[in-house]
Recover the amino acids of this structure.
């Protein structure tokens, strides 16, 4: 949390964090689907481009966020 303080003056960093947090949130929702139905095979696909479009983050940040998300 302390590191987020340093993002207040860097718009690109804030946008990256916003996109990554939205992506992680969608992954968490999909994980909840697995926990809710452990004996079925739910669709757990999370598409980064779809998530970014929902938060209006699609654009030049897509490549940066995709690179970070793939490594994590």
């Amino acid at each position: 949390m302390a590191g987020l303080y340093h993002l207040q003056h860097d718009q690109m960093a804030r946008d990256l964090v916003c996109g990554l947090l939205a992506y992680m949130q969608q992954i968490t929702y999909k994980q909840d689907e697995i926990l809710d139905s452990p004996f079925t095979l739910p669709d757990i696909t999370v598409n980064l481009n779809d998530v970014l479009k929902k938060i209006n983050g699609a654009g030049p940040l897509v490549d940066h966020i995709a690179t970070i998300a793939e490594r994590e």
